[in-house]
Every structure is written in structure tokens, then in C-alpha cells.
Inverse folding.
């Protein structure tokens, strides 16, 4: 956890893959869970920016990890990639992977106008992204430090500098959300007038899609929204989705309803939580029954 803070503070690209399993402690080491969301969102001392992403299927994992690497490199932040046991050990048939589908993003490099002591590694910019030299670039040596610092990596403890540098680092999340956040949202079904809108995350997507079909067969119409970037949360499109449906249901495989609580804190939505932590994936029949129950409330 401390290394996540260091990567954020020193603005070092990093991707951390968390394949969640049952817990806590030794818990259920061969079973599945979605219980690490709070750790991914909040698990550092003080505050530092990070991106949290969650794939929804085996095929999605192949492509989304490439996006995670791109985001880490361009925005110089740690990216936490939340998979789980049921997804990591799953076998399925997928189309042949397209190696050219995800273009590679390059980091912002210094342009050569400043070097030999003039290189501002942590230059304050509108986006929060500063030019980052590749090791070995002549004249662009710098100190990558976890100590609070100014634009030139010098330790600086003034309140004014602290506010300026923290604002700079967190602006990167704002830029990512504004320019790319909604590209990582998938909607299933038509939310307009739906009896139940489901907002979920991660590997539950397939179960939810099946449960929606089963509910439809019993006269209850549901739609689902799955964001693949959980931090920063694409609030605008989530609230738009919620405004079109009658009720919001949040199914997830943990005990306390972590994602439902996160949605309450970040949006104006008051979701109904359906949290089940059994070590097994959610069951489509059980989720169908919950969809129908919520629709008839």
C-alpha cells in the first residue's frame, strides 16, 4: 500500500493487478469475492490519486489491461486492476485477440528546451501531466521522491506548495474522467422507463445479463450499466442512466455492499444494495428474483 502512495507522489507509472479472493485473512484462498474495492479506492494513508479499473469478462481482461498500461504511462499514476478468482480461473471461447485494437499511448517527454539543472520534472500544467524523461536521456536527470517537492524535485514544505502540487496531481484524474471516462462504460438494454436499472462492476456482468433475460420472461424490464473505470467514477453518465429507470439495484459479491456505498458518496443516487459474499459467483436465478422483488416494491 505504501508503494502505491509513492508511485502517486513521485508520479511513476505502475499497474497493480489485484485478483480478489475470499477473505478476510487467509479466508477462502481458492474462492472468489469482490471485497477489495474499498482497499483499491481508499487504501493509503493521507490522500493520493490512483485509477481503479475492473474488467468484466475474459476477453475484456485482455484489452482492458492494455488500457490500464496506457493510462498509467500517460497520466503517470498507479492503476489498480481489480480482477477476481472466478474471472481469473475461467475458461471460455473468445474471438481471436486483435493485437492492434488498443493503440499504444506514449508518455509526455521533455522537448529539449530545458536541461542540465533546468528540467522541471514536476512542472505544474493545466492537465497535471508533467514531461517525464526516460532514464538515460542526457541532461534530464531528476530525483523521483516521495517527499513533498516543488517543480524541480526539491523538498518543499510550504502550505502554498503543498496545495499547488496536490492540486496538480489530482487534476490528472479530472482530465482522464472528462476526456476518456465515458468510453469505458457499457450499457445493456434500454434504460428508458425500465423497471429496474442495475449498476454493477467487474465479473458479475455476465450473470446480470442472464438475470435480465430471465426477469424479462416474467414481465420485468431491466437495463444494466457497467463502468470499467471505478476511480475516477464517470458520474455524469451514471446519473443520466439512473434518471431514466424507476429504481437502481447494485448487485456485488461482497458482504457490505462496497460499490453501492461508493455510489451513494459520489452521486445523487440512492441505490438498493444486493450484496452476497459466499465465495461463489452470483447466481442468475437469485439475481432475477431480486430484480423482480425490487421492481414490485
Amino acid at each position: 500500500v505504501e508503494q502505491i502512495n509513492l508511485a502517486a507522489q513521485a508520479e511513476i507509472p505502475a499497474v497493480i493487478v489485484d485478483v480478489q479472493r475470499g477473505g478476510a485473512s487467509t479466508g477462502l484462498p481458492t474462492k472468489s469475492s469482490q471485497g477489495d474495492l474499498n482497499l483499491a479506492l481508499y487504501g493509503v494513508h493521507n490522500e493520493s490519486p490512483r485509477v481503479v479499473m475492473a474488467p468484466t469478462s475474459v476477453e475484456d481482461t485482455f484489452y482492458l489491461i492494455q488500457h490500464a498500461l496506457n493510462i498509467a504511462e500517460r497520466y503517470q499514476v498507479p492503476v489498480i486492476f481489480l480482477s477476481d478468482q472466478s474471472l481469473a480461473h475461467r475458461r471460455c471461447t473468445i474471438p481471436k485477440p486483435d493485437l492492434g485494437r488498443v493503440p499504444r499511448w506514449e508518455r509526455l517527454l521533455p522537448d529539449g528546451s530545458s536541461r542540465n539543472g533546468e528540467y522541471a520534472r514536476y512542472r505544474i500544467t493545466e492537465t497535471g501531466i508533467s514531461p517525464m524523461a526516460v532514464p538515460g536521456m542526457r541532461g534530464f536527470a531528476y530525483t523521483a521522491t516521495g517527499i513533498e517537492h516543488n517543480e524541480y524535485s526539491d523538498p518543499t514544505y510550504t502550505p502554498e506548495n503543498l496545495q499547488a502540487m496536490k492540486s496538480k496531481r489530482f487534476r490528472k484524474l479530472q482530465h482522464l474522467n472528462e476526456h476518456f471516462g465515458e468510453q469505458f462504460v457499457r450499457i445493456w438494454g434500454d434504460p428508458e422507463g425500465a423497471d429496474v436499472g442495475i449498476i454493477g462492476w467487474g465479473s458479475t456482468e455476465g450473470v446480470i445479463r442472464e438475470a435480465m433475460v430471465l426477469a424479462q420472461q416474467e414481465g420485468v424490464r431491466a437495463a444494466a450499466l457497467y463502468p470499467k473505470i471505478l476511480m475516477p467514477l464517470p458520474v455524469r453518465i451514471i446519473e443520466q442512466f439512473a434518471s431514466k429507470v424507476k429504481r437502481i439495484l447494485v448487485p456485488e459479491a461482497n458482504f457490505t455492499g462496497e460499490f453501492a456505498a461508493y455510489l451513494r458518496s459520489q452521486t445523487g443516487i440512492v441505490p438498493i444494495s444486493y450484496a452476497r459474499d459466499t465465495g461463489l459467483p452470483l447466481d442468475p436465478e437469485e439475481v432475477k428474483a431480486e430484480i423482480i422483488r425490487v421492481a414490485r416494491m
